[in-house]
Design brief:
Blueprint: H1 3-27, H2 32-56
Helix pairs in contact: 1-2
């Protein structure tokens, strides 16, 4: 597994955790422990996304400021081995 793949997996894991906690907090808005956990995951996610985009380019079209088409640069997920 490449460094890029490992970073994408970590980003996906953290994004899933934040989204899952958001859904939980919709029904349990006063749960201080989960609010703290969400902030912890979010604080890990933001620098990881910044690092990924600095090394490999934007994750989504919306993240792209400089070049409108940079987000479609190779390799596509199906172009990599394994």
């Amino acid at each position: 597994m490449t460094e890029r793949d490992m970073m994408l997996k970590k980003i996906g894991t953290l994004k899933f955790a934040v989204t899952d906690i958001d859904l939980f907090l919709d029904t349990h808005p006063g749960d201080a422990a989960m609010l703290k956990k969400r902030e912890e995951y979010e604080s890990q996610l933001e620098p990881l996304i910044t690092q990924f985009e600095a090394q490999f380019g934007p994750l989504t079209k919306c993240e792209n400021d400089a070049n409108t088409w940079a987000w479609v640069k190779d390799p596509w997920p199906w172009d990599t081995e394994g």
